[in-house]
Amino acid sequence: MSGGTYLGMPAFPEAARAATRDERLRGNLRHATHTIRDKRARAVAELPDWAELRAAGAAIKDRTLRHLDGYLERLEEAVTAAGGQVHWAADAAQANEIVTRLVLRTGEREVVKVKSMATQELGLNAALERAGVRAYETDLAELIVQLGDDLPSHILVPAIHRNRREIRDIFAERMGDWGRPAPEGLTDEPADLAEAARLHLRQKFLDAKVGISGANFMVAETGTMVVVESEGNGRMCLTLPETLISVVGIEKVVPTWRDLEVFLQLLPRSSTAERMNPYTSMWTGTSDGDGPSTFHLVLVDNGRTDTLADEVGRQALRCIRCSACLNVCPVYERAGGHAYGSAYPGPIGAILTPQLRGVDTALDASLPYASSLCGACYEVCPVAIDIPEVLVRLRERVVEGGEATVGGTRVRIRPARGHAAERAAMRAARWALDHPGALRAGQRVAGRMRRLQPRRLPGPGAAWSRTRDVPPLPPESFRSWWRRTRGESGEAGR
Amino acid sequence: MRVALFVTCVNDTLFPRTGQAVVALLERLGVAVDFPEEQSCCGQPQFNTGYRRETEPLVRRYARAFHGYDYIVTPSGSCAAMVRDNYPRIGARAMSEGRDRGLASVAESVVPRTLELTEFLVDVLGVTDVGAYYPHSVTYHPTCHGLRMLGLGDRPRRLLEAVRGLTLLDLPGAEECCGFGGTFAVKNEAVSAAMGADKARHIVGTGAEAVCTVDNSCQTHIGGTLSRLGAGVRPVHLAEILASTEETQW
Questions:
Q1: Chain B residues with CB inside 8 Å of A16's CB?
Q2: Where is the chain membrane-spanning (chain B) (predicted)?
C-alpha cells in the first residue's frame, strides 16, 4: 500500500494534456475551484484592511527570512527549554532517517498523522513503510488519497480531483484493508461519508502512541508550535499520543506571538474562506500529565537555504500554504494537481518545486512554463508573492542557466537540454526586431505571398494551428502604410 | 505635447488597421501623433520565455526611438505592462551583473511616459466620449496584463459605454485568462486550447456580434479559436470601435 509516486512523471505539458481530456476530472475541478474561489473573495472582501494585512504578512516573512539563522537558534533554545528535542535535517533523506529512527525507538509500528505538506514533500510515509512502520493519514481528504493508493492534487483539499461517488467506492472497497471497514450500505451523502471516516479514524486515534505532524507556524520567542485545521483530527493527533514528532520546514518560523495575529487572519480567509479556522492547536514543548510526554521537532531545509540565496526566487519562502493561488489558477483548473509532479501543485508549486528540487529533470524544467502569466495568483496571494516574476526568473534559469546555489554552494548551472532551437529562434527574432529595415522587408515579402498563407502551420507552428486559425496576413504592414501615406520621416509628426 | 505611437510588432505585422485606428482616433481628438520608424518590439516574447538578455538591445532601441516624446501611446495592455513593469527589472539586473552601460537609466526613463491607449484617453486627454458610433453588440474581455499589471480598471468599459449605437453585453468569467500567454500557447497547447475553448463558449453565450479587447496578441488566440469553431463572432480591438463614426465604419 505504497500509494502513488511522483518519480518518473512526464513533463507538465504531456501530463496536463491527458488531464484536459478527462471530462470527469475537469468537472470535479471546475466545480470545486470555483466554489472555493468565490467563497474566498467574499471572506476577503469583509476586511477593510486586507491590503495592509497582506503587506504586513509579506514584510514579517521577509524580515524573518533575512535573519532566519538567528530566529531558528532562538526557536531551538525555547523548544529545548520547554522540554522538547530539536533535530536538524539538511535534506529529505536525513529528515526521513531521523523520523524513522525516532519512531522505531518507541517500539511502535503504527503512527497517526496530521495533514502535513512537509512530510508529503519528503515522502515520509513511504520511508516509514520501508522501515515497517504504518502511517495513518487522519485528515479526511488525505485519508481518501491514502485509501485510494493515490496522490494528493491540492494543498488544502488533496482529494479535490475526486467526487463523492468515487469517494464512496474507495471507502467501501478499501477501509477494511486499513482498519475498521465502512458501514454496510454506505451512500455517497457527505454526512454518511464523514461518519464512515469518523468511525474508521476513531480507532486509530485511541490506539496511537505516536503522532506525526507538521506545523503552520513556529513562534521563536516561546518555542510554540501552531497547527490550524478544520476537522479536529489534528487536535486528536496532537494530544492523545505519548510521543509527538513535528516535521517542519525552516521557513515556518515567525519571531513573536504578535506576528501570529496577522497570519491567523490571512490564512483561514485565503485558504478555507473562513473568518477563523475551527481548530487552532498550540503547544510549547511538553507539559506534565497533559498531552504527549515526548516532543521532537525536526527542522527541515531540503532546498530552502538554496532558495533563500536567490534574490527574486526567495519570496516563494513566504508561502503559508493557503492554496488560494491554486483555486484561481486557470491552468491548475484544467491540468489538475498531479501534472505538477510534486506535493506542491498549482502556481506556488511551479515556483517552489524547481527551486527546492532544481531544474534537472524534464518535469521540473517544464514547471516554470506551466503558466500563462495571467497574474491571478499574485492578486490573491495573502503574502504578495509575485509568482509571475519568479516564474520568468526560473524560465531564465532553464533556458540560459547561470548562477544558482545548490547544496549551499554557488554554482554555474548549464541551460536545460532541448532549448537549442528555441534559443536560436529567439536570437534570430531579436536580430530582426533590432533591424527594422529587415523587419519591413520581411513584412513586405509576407504581404506579397499572403495568398499562399497556409491554414495549418508546419513544424512548431502546428501547436498553434491545430486548435486555432492563423490570422490572415494583411497586404501591407502598419509601417509601410505610414511611410506610403505620411512620408519618409513621418512628416505628419508636426 | 509630443505624442508617439508605439504600434507594437504584432499590430505592425498582423493588425495594421488597429494602428491606423489609433492614428485616426487621436487625430480626430486633435492630437498630432508621430510614428518613429526606429521602433520595433518591446521584447516581451523573449523576456517572458526566459531570454532576458536578448531583450536588452530592444530596451535600448525603444528608449532611443521614443526619446524626446512626452507620451508613448500603445494599443496593447501587455506591451505597456512589459515596459512599465519589466524594463526597470531588466535594467536593475544588468546593473547587478555589471553590464549596465546606462541601461537602467534609459529603462527608467520610458516608464512614466508609456501609456496604454485607454489610459492616455481617460487620464491625459480626460475624455470617455470620443464621439464614436458603432452600431453592434459587443462583449468586452479584459486582458490579463491590462487588468492586473496596469490596473486599467473600468477605463475601457467607460469608453465603450459612451459609444453611440453600441450594446455592451456582460461576459461571464470575464477576468479569467483566455489562455494565450505568449509562448505558453504552443508550449502548453492543450491547456491553452482548453482555456480558449471556455473563453470562446462564454463569448458565444453572450450573443454578441463582436468581442473587444485592448490586446491583439490575446485577440489572435481568441479570434483564432472562434474562427476555428465557426462561431461567427468578430474579434475587434477597442481602438477600431473608438475610431468608428457615422461616416467611417472601421
A1: 188, 190-191
A2: none
